[in-house]
């Protein structure tokens, strides 16, 4: 409890109220809630409540948390470490990320140091990516297994839908039409880990969304486990605290060649970034090539754009250009705007915009689209209509290029960018713009404090 109160939490979110008790009662769970509702704190609380830090070294590893990427692994590790900082004897937690393919001397040295640590002082909690944990549990590099799971009490899959997105049937055939080798599938690797667990291990799958394939995969991988499904109501899942808009880039007709469409999108992106100049922005692209294109177009002295997460977190750069790989887990409290340079499927759309509006804070999401992605009539895979029908959320058209502005409701007024965009466009004095931005940030900080969100 001291760890919880030390982080400034005063009362649980609705998600935490629903999830903590069943986990403390030993239930296996599929926990669904959008980003920013404190899902990590739920399973961290359950883990720490049952950890025996007096356990002998050979029985030390009692909880394993699997995550889809390195950044989320480090973030989850820090969260559990913070909540468990007052345990006695002290909690040992290890973050394990990387690839078993040690191509450089530095990478090999890091792995040797990690193996040595795990063997001499095994942690109570192990957090890492699937490949690295499997590598350590199976001893793929001929050094033999380093991690033993027979005493593991908890196995958590954070962002389970992402980790099992390529869910496959037991024969290794891709259920999403993919052709990747089954041996590299998370499904197959997780099956291998599941066989090493004892029958009483508590299984927790956490995600902002649960596709039918994910729940099916969970039952196949853990056939002896029955799951309790805890999910927030639709009003929580549709992100009502995030103002959602789309901007249509077009000429008089809808026939726009791809190079011209990209140029129109780049121009629109530049204008949007200027409007939200006083905030931090995620710019999501479909693939790495598109990220490179956006960065190349904005490669000039003093640019606000970056692909470096640390530069974005520190505030050195204010626009993070990224792919869907960062649509989950990354938490930058100062960020309030998501710009979708390209539209995506409804599930990933909700994951992207979940980077803002965390813990009920205000947020804004804007998608830059051609005319044919407004509705389903064109037969395209992705459209605004696909998203609104899937999640019952409201996405309004914003013709800001024609001088139109969104309504200023209480959510929007809290955003640093929205309070001053008219002044910025009209060429107001820089000092006045900065003062308005500071006032917006102070108001947002006060709101966060009232919700019990610590620094």
TrEMBL record:
**UniProt KW keywords:** ATP-binding, Helicase, Hydrolase, Initiation factor, Nucleotide-binding, Nucleus, Protein biosynthesis, Ribosome biogenesis, rRNA processing
Domain (Helicase C-terminal): residue spans on this chain: 241-406
> Where is it mostly found?
nucleus
Q: Which GO terms describe its molecular function?
A: ATP binding; hydrolase activity; nucleic acid binding; RNA helicase activity; translation initiation factor activity
EC id: 3.6.4.13
Nucleus among keywords: yes
Record InterPro entries: DEAD/DEAH_box_helicase_dom, DEAD/DEAH_RhlB, Helicase_ATP-bd, Helicase_C-like, P-loop_NTPase, RNA-helicase_DEAD-box_CS
Q: Where in the cell is it found?
A: Nucleus, Nucleolus
- Per UniProt, residues of the Helicase ATP-binding domain are 20-228
Is ATP-binding among the key words of this record?
A: yes
Family the UniProt entry places it in: Belongs to the DEAD box helicase family. DDX5/DBP2 subfamily.
Biological role stated in the UniProt entry: ATP-dependent RNA helicase required for 60S ribosomal subunit synthesis. Involved in efficient pre-rRNA processing, predominantly at site A3, which is necessary for the normal formation of 25S and 5.8S rRNAs.
User: What is the name of this protein?
Assistant: RNA helicase
